[in-house]
Specification:
16% strand; 5-stranded mixed beta sheet; alpha/beta; single chain; binds iron/sulfur cluster; Lambda Exonuclease, Chain A
């Protein structure tokens, strides 16, 4: 596999249920080599029209749900960095403050799809999410090795870049706050396969385990999974498809019935010329 790159960034890590405050600082791509980030891959393969709308807009557009994701990610990052530096978790009050501040910043710096009232409701549930994180998830993440570290790996002739939330001696953890996860979804997560490939680039070997911490308004669930060399090989075709899609410039809407094609999960719902417009009549 390829090479790792170290660094740090403010909380975030955009995917469909989470915003980002800053782009991670990856090393420049190798000249002539196609580079794609995990975020780009995720959006492109879910809905290339969403990708196009994102590229065309000057300001960043988010949903309340994505701002909640960024807030929880900020607290988790603080917690994991504290564990690395001091060997103890962050205080609960600091987690709550960090989440609230990150939410406000994310909303202030972005174009938020929902109304002001919905944004205030989102803010009001951050302390509850942070307390759930601090009591249920934090105690289960120990011996932290890396926190939101930008890593790049070569897969065949393509470079893939990503920032796993947390890498510990146990494996790779990814925190989700959007639609609640289940075991099948964790087993099939393309993102976890890519993170395992990035783990090889960074540590010279695959991770022992991967897991999703699914945090939602009623609680938390953790789903463990593992990746094999066969999973790593299969991802190459996925990356090739994404490369073709990106280079073709074709913008197709999400497949009919996709859960993320909704006002709650797609930040472009209100401006989408296909689905959002159709629903609004
Ligand atoms: S509303 Fe649906 S089709 Fe339109 S950009 Fe969003 S996910 Fe894609």
């Amino acid at each position: 596999m390829g090479r790792g790159a170290c660094g740090s960034r403010p909380p975030g890590g955009l995917d469909l249920d989470r915003g980002e405050l800053m782009q991670p600082k990856y090393p420049p791509p190798t000249p002539g080599v196609f580079r794609i980030t995990n975020t780009e891959l995720n959006i492109l393969l879910k809905c290339s029209l969403m990708w196009q709308l994102r590229e065309d807009r000057k300001s960043r557009r988010i949903t309340v749900n994505m701002a909640i994701g960024s807030a929880v990610a900020a607290g988790a990052k603080l917690d994991n960095l504290t564990k690395m530096a001091e060997g103890t978790p962050a205080r609960m009050s600091d987690l709550v403050d960090s989440g609230v501040e990150a939410y406000k910043l994310e909303v202030e710096e972005s174009e938020v799809q929902e109304s002001h009232l919905e944004q205030i409701k989102g803010l009001s549930i951050i302390p509850q999410y942070m307390r759930l994180y601090g009591s249920r998830i934090s105690p289960r993440v120990i011996e932290v090795l890396a926190v939101e570290e930008p890593i790049v790996s070569a897969v065949g002739e393509i470079e893939i870049a990503g920032t796993p939330d947390v890498i510990s001696t146990s494996g790779i953890g990814d925190l989700k706050t959007g639609k609640p996860w289940d075991q099948d979804r964790a087993h099939n997560s393309r993102q976890l396969t890519i993170y395992d490939i990035l783990h090889i680039a960074r540590f010279g070997k695959p991770s022992k385990l991967q897991w999703i911490d699914s945090l939602h308004s009623t609680g938390h669930d953790r789903y463990y999974t593992v990746r094999t060399a066969e999973d790593h090989r299969r991802i190459y075709n996925v990356l090739l498809n994404a490369k073709r899609l990106k280079e073709s410039g074709i913008a197709l809407p999400a497949p009919e019935g996709s859960w993320y094609c909704s006002r709650k999960y797609c930040p472009y719902w209100d401006v989408c010329p296909v689905m959002g417009g159709k629903q609004k009549g």
